[in-house]
Amino acid sequence: MRHGKADGTREGTPVAVLGLGLAALGRPEYLTVGHGPSLGADRSVAGLRGRCEEVCDAAWAGGIRWFDAARSYGLAEEFLAGWLRGRGIGAQDVTVSSKWGYTYTADWQPGAPVQEVKDHTAAALARQWPQSRALLGRWLDLYQIHSATEESGVLDDEAVLHDLAGLGVPVGLSLSGPHQARTLRKALAVRVGGRPVFSAVQATWNVLEPSAGPALAEAKAAGWTVIVKEALANGLLATPGPATAPLGEDPAGPALAAALAQPWADVVLSGAVTVRQLHANLAALTTPPPAPDDYAPLAVDPEAYWTRRSAMPWT
């Protein structure tokens, strides 16, 4: 699988590439600290389309070649497909990943009580795969289960696994919740017809919630592509304060640099919603990462981390 090109070196040591995740660019609200003020007043479809294209242009100019979407990211797949066509970007020049398993239900309404609904059944895959394929077509390089967990039963559903194995593109899974490592280790053993179903994982790793690290190293050793999401903890690590003091006055750069420096990481996704944020994220490629001993005290109990995340407001 191709990896994006936005990478760098620190004292001769390669770091992971930077990609762009479109979770906060394809819909008018998202659960990131400061998302609303950063996005601004124009939350119309046309306004979001223009913002998404603007940030994608800046990402491309900065060397980013990996773009990640999902069916539940509002119109992210549609925005991305239109941008790729409009800029004449060939499938061989970019890596595009997307996901199935959640449906966006807010219908562009501010303050909607339910933003998305999870469904990991074979029927949901049969509905969403053609939608993703129709939009992203030849650009789609990786299709992932969105936030797979053991509790959802998706890793035990023979019908889903059989259908995933037959899609004709590499298949992965994204993870969520305090038991990411356990879910990943189960996925590593999943086979259909004696062959592995999955070849990539997208997981949350940051200096507040690093618990999936050892399992991600195992996935890398097994030949999987490892993608890091939420490296800034949904904006918590972009806000200076006592909790981030070990990272300095501007914690976002060191926090992102720490994720990029993980030896098992192939891609770290930026969640930027402005060109300024995107440029700051690109600068992390050459920012010296903090020493593990410096950020280790920031780690919190995974259960507490995910409880806090689930309570974050959509803005």
Automatic annotation (TrEMBL):
UniProt domain NADP-dependent oxidoreductase: residue ranges: 55-239
Source organism, top-level taxon: Bacteria
Name used for this protein in its record: Aldo/keto reductase
Organism, scientific name: Actinacidiphila epipremni
